[in-house]
Amino acid sequence: MKPGTPTAELEGVHKRYGKVTALDGVDLAVSSGELLALLGPNGAGKSTAIATCLGLVEPDQGAARLFGESPHALSARRRIGVMLQSAGLPDTLKVRELLAQVRSYYPAPRDTDECVRLGGVDGLMDRRYGQLSGGQQRRVQFALAVCGRPQLLFLDEPTVGFDIEARTSLWQTIRTLVGEGCAVVLTTHYLEEAEALADRVAVLARGRIVAAGSVSQIRARVAQRRIRCISALDTAAIGAWPEVRSVCRDGERIEIVTDAAEVVVRQLLFEDSELCELEVQRAGLAEAFVEITREAA
Ligand SMILES: Nc1ncnc2c1ncn2[C@@H]1O[C@H](COP(=O)(O)OP(=O)(O)OP(=O)(O)O)[C@@H](O)[C@H]1O
C-alpha cells in the first residue's frame, strides 16, 4: 500500500435497488488511527455504504477499496474486523467455540484472554450464543470483530441494547484501538457516541453526503445557539422576538434557542438590567444533525 492510501475508500459510488437510490455518488475515506462516524436518518444509506466497502454489495458505478485493493482480495479481508447489524451467528455454538472459529480465520489473532477482555465477555464463554441477551450478543460480536487484530474495523450500530456501563466501556476500548492505529468506520444513531469518539463525521441523507468534517466543524455549520440566563422577563414576549426560535422557563432560569445570538443577547441586556448568569452555547452535534438532515430533506 502506497503511503497516504486510505485504509478504506469509496469513490463516486452509486447504488440503486429498483426505484430506490441507496447511494448517490458517495465519496468516503478513512485512514489509519482515525475514527469516521457515518451518521444519517433511517434509510440514508449507511449500511449500504459499509456493505459496499466490504464487497458485499457491488456498486452500479464507482469503486470501493480496502488498503488500496479490491474488497474481495483475501489479503485485505484478513486485515479487517466487522460488526454488522445482523450477525447471523449460529445460536447453538458456545461463545468459546465461536471465538475459536473466527480466530482461526486470521494469520495473527489476539489471544483468547485479550478478546474476552476487549469484548467484556468474561463469564459468557461457556454459554450458547442463542441464549444470550441482546446486549451480551453484541459484546460477543465485538469480541469476534477484534479477535483478528484488524487494522480496519467496521462497527454498524455497535452499542444498540448496551447498558450505560457496557457502552462506556466499549467506547474506551474503541478509543484504545484507534490510539493503536486501527481505522474505524462507525455508524450510530446515538449522536453522543459520535461526539465522544469521532475524529471525523460524515452525514448521509438520501444516499448523499450532505456534511463532512470534524465534530466541531459540523457543529459550526449550524448558526443555532442556546442562550441561558436568570431573568424575570416575560417568556411570551421573548418568544415574539423575530430571532427567537423557542424559549422556555424553568423557575428563575430562561433558555432561548436562536440563530442570532448577538441580537438576542443585546435585547435581553437592554430589557433587563438585573439579568445574570448569561451563557451562550453552540448547537450540539444532535441539534446540528437535525438541522442538516432537515435542510437535505
Ligand atoms: N437489499 C435491498 N433491497 C432493496 N432495498 C434496499 C436493500 N438494502 C437497502 N435498501 C434500501 O436502500 C436504502 C438505504 O438503506 P440502508 O440500509 O443503507 O440505510 P441505513 O442508513 O443503514 O438505515 P438504518 O439507519 O435504518 O440502518 C433504504 O431505502 C433501503 O430500504
Percent strand: 25-35%
* Order of neighbouring strands in the sheet with most strands: 5-6-7-3-8-9
SS content category: alpha/beta
How many helices? 11
Radius of gyration: 23 Å
Architecture of the largest domain, CATH level 2? Answer: 3-Layer(aba) Sandwich
Q: State the distance separating the first and last CA atoms.
A: 39 Å
Tell me the domain tally: 2
Shape: globular
Number of strands: 13
CATH class of the largest domain: Alpha Beta
Largest sheet: 6 strands, mixed
CATH topology of the largest domain: Rossmann fold
- The CATH homologous superfamily of the largest domain is called P-loop containing nucleotide triphosphate hydrolases
Compact summary:
With about 300 residues, the chain is α/β, with parallel strands linked by helices. The protein contains eleven helices and 13 strands. The strands form three sheets. The chain has a six-stranded mixed β-sheet, with helices on both faces.
Structural account:
This protein has about 300 residues and is an alpha/beta fold. It has two domains: about 10-220, Rossmann fold; about 225-285 and about 290-295, Alpha-Beta Plaits. The protein has helices spanning about 45-55, 75, 95-105, 110-120, 135-145, 165-180, 190-195, 215-220, 235-240, 260-270, 285-295; strands at about 10-15, 20-30, 35-40, 60-65, 80-85, 150-155, 185, 200-205, 210-215, 225-230, 245-250, 255-260, 275-280. It has a six-stranded mixed sheet with strand order 5-6-7-3-8-9, sandwiched between helices. It has a four-stranded antiparallel sheet with strand order 11-12-10-13. The relative contact order is 0.14. The mean pLDDT is about 90. The structure holds adenosine-5'-triphosphate (ATP). Adenosine-5'-triphosphate binds near residues 20 and 48. It comes from Dokdonella soli. One of its GO terms (molecular function) is ATP binding.
